[in-house]
Amino acid sequence: MKREILITSDGSTTIYLPDWDEQYHSKHGAIQEAYHVFIKSGFELFCDTDHNKNTQKSIAILEIGFGTGLNAFITFLEGIKHHKKIDYIGVEAYPVIAEEVLKLNYVSELKATAYQSCFNEMHAVSWDEKHLVSADFSLTKRKQFFEEITDENRFDLVYFDAFGAEYQPDLWSECIFLKMYTALKKEGVLVTYCAKGSVRRAMQTVGFAVERLPGPPGKREMLRATKKG
């Protein structure tokens, strides 16, 4: 499938798939979307903020769709800011190639040049092994299909960042969300940019309590699901 580097509305890059007319991140702003959906609506629930006092020192995160590494890198930066120890698992069946990584401008757009080597390392380290990117951030990249996930009661937070349901509906099914529910600890949280009614109902069917939240630029709503059982 043909792939192109696209500049999104906030100046950050993403990978565009012309055959699907779909991209890895929102064309309205890759970085803006990542912060709104995954950090503000997910990660910050486990951090000390003005509206939340959380003493949890470590966070285990599962990302569904490691892709360009943007969500992992932003989480790494936020972990430093909030003094959190993070165990990050990124699942990806079709890894981004090295030539594409070189064209991504996240480090400069985030004004994080001091951590350029950390971003590079996230893409360079071997798959299916745990690596320390820093003393407080471990990364395991799993090269596997989402259907193969078998974790139980392991994660505090899931970033569900698969391609859209209109292109890969099987990834937004009850079967997959049951795997996510099983993988989360009690009171664990899943966040996603998607707000389709069929996706919300699939989450509810497997046991999640689901909230509709204001979406990132270009989207009216997003979903946040919590494991209450």
How would you summarize what this structure contains?
The protein has about 230 residues and is an alpha/beta fold. The protein has 7 helices and 11 strands.
Total domains: 1
What is the chain-wise order of helices and strands?
EEEHEHEHHHEEEHEHEE
- Taking all residues together, what is the mean pLDDT? 95
Q: Specify the CATH class.
A: Alpha Beta
Low-confidence stretches: none
| Helical amount | 25-40%
Structure description:
The chain has a single domain, classed as 3-Layer(aba) Sandwich (Rossmann fold). The longest helix is centred in the N-terminal third of the chain and has 13 residues, at 70-82. The model has no long low-confidence stretch (mean pLDDT 95). The chain has helices at 30-40, 70-82, 98-101, 106-109, 116-124, 174-183, 197-205, and strands at residues 4-7, 13-17, 22-23, 58-64, 85-91, 130-134, 137-142, 155-160, 184-192, 208-214, 221-227. A hairpin with a 2-residue loop joins strand 6 and strand 7. An eight-stranded mixed beta sheet has the order 6-7-5-4-8-9-11-10, with helices on both faces. A three-stranded antiparallel beta sheet has the order 1-2-3, with no helix packed on it. It has seven helices and eleven strands. Helix 1 crosses helix 2. It is of the alpha/beta class. The N and C termini lie far apart (41 Å).
